[in-house]
């Protein structure tokens, strides 16, 4: 009955008395408490401080099922890095440098790269197909502004992007 109540609470019936619902199970993490499974996580900082590199190093550790920065990963996780900033060659240079630093000869299995030429809205079906065909669990989008194709200060554009991304039912690192 609790699952039915939660489903109703997430549907067209927005009003529910919270005291009538049981506490749900915790959301399982992909990486420690910082990257919960199936939700969007925002990584925000000034340009040039290393968000892209951090995300790629994290994706390497997740693909290997290795702990990262003292935080656990439960098992190997298949990740797709959607890159609006670098081309494939520049991204692969980084990926190989990270891999060698981890004692690998090449990037680990389960790590995917895609550089779409259009904003997410225009390639959403293609993105969805890539996720399904490759059993992706983590979607990294670099950068949110470019993926949105407009000014990220426009709430409507960002809200539409988030609504679409959440339909993918994967963990998001933006």
Q: What can you tell me about this protein's structure?
A:
The protein is an alpha/beta fold. The protein has helices at residues 2-9, 51-64, 88-101, 120-134, 144-148, 155-166; strands spanning 29-31, 35-36, 40-41, 79-83, 111-114, 138-142, 171-173. Helices cover 39% and strands 14% of the residues. The strands form two sheets. It has a five-stranded parallel β-sheet. Strands 1-2 form a two-stranded antiparallel sheet. The longest helix is centred in the C-terminal third of the chain and has 15 residues, at 120-134. It is globular and about 55 Å long. The model has no long low-confidence stretch (mean pLDDT 88).
Class derived from helix and strand content:
alpha/beta
Mass-distribution shape: globular
* Main sheet: strands, sense, barrel: 5 strands, parallel
Strand content: 5-15%
- Write down how many β-strands occur, each being a DSSP E stretch of 2 or more residues: 7
Count of helical segments? Answer: 6
Average residue pLDDT: 88
Distance between the termini: 35 Å
Query: Could you spell the SSE succession in H and E letters?
Result: HEEEHEHEHEHHE
Q: Can you give the helix content as a percent range?
A: 25-40%
Uncertain regions spanning at least 5 consecutive residues:
none
| Alpha carbon gyration radius | 18 Å
Q: What topology, given as strand order, has the largest sheet?
A: 3-7-6-4-5
